[in-house]
Amino acid sequence: MAVDAFDIRPATTSDLPGLLALYRQLNPEDPGLPLSLATERFAEMMSHPGMTVFTSVSGETLTSTATLSILPNLTRGGKPYALIENVVTDTRFRKRGHAGAVIRHAVGHAWDKGCFKVMLLTGSQDPATLKFYEGCGFVQNKTGFQIRQSANI
Description:
By secondary structure, the chain is α+β, with helices and mostly antiparallel strands. It has helices at about 15-25, 35-45, 100-110, 125-135, and strands spanning about 5-10, 50-60, 60-70, 80-90, 120. About 30% of the residues lie in helices and about 25% in strands.
């Protein structure tokens, strides 16, 4: 696996075009999000305490991203827990260490904030993807459920 030189940092509003391009690779069937609406949503996300969108950046290119949400809690001695979502790496930079570094950075941030666990769900059944998440330290030992609003509701 080739490894590139890259930095990991929280995303800023100026990163929105790059983030939107990454998210198109994650969910190509989603309708495009106009930059004005994306700017509004990003500001709303960043106003939530504990939410950070981490990115890896190589030169001027956003190469990978993951969103970390830290949530307050009344169990486990009041320790918060965290959720990682929207993990994606640009196809040109896959298998080069970017996503693993971003995820490990996000997990480290959660530990620094006192979280007792970090959760990540994936819809992928690809054994390589599951092995990748296991390589990042995640253990597949719980059952996840979700419910989505249908277009008919």
